[in-house]
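Dear support,

I submitted the protein below through the web form. The confirmation email said the job was done, but the results page showed an empty box. After a refresh the structure appeared. I'm attaching both so you can tell me whether what I see now is the final result or a partial one.
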Amino acid sequence: MTLNLSIDLKSTAFWAGVPSAIFLLRYAFHVFTRKAPPTGLATFIMWSILDVLLLVNTIRNGQPIWLPFGWVLGATTASVALAIRGSWNWTWRESLSLIGAAAAATVSVLMS
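What the results page shows now:
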């Protein structure tokens, strides 16, 4: 297993990973500086976990890591900003998100 850090400037994955990270980091900055209202911390934590699983599977398959790395960086930073500045709310939407995230994580673990 090798870490594929190749950058293909023609790759959609590279060009999608960079803006994903930038937009999520920008959102995290605005939440942290209280310029944007905080959203669901629980949902962002679930996204972070799923993105880490995707990154691990990408590394295990020897694929370029930039798209899932951008997602992990952005979602984790947003989760930290929301943990510091937001509040923990659990509604039916978080319950629905948890069901979907658990199903996706289960499939990811079983298929890898």
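Response: this is the final, complete result; the empty box was a page-load delay. The chain is about 70% helix and 0% strand.
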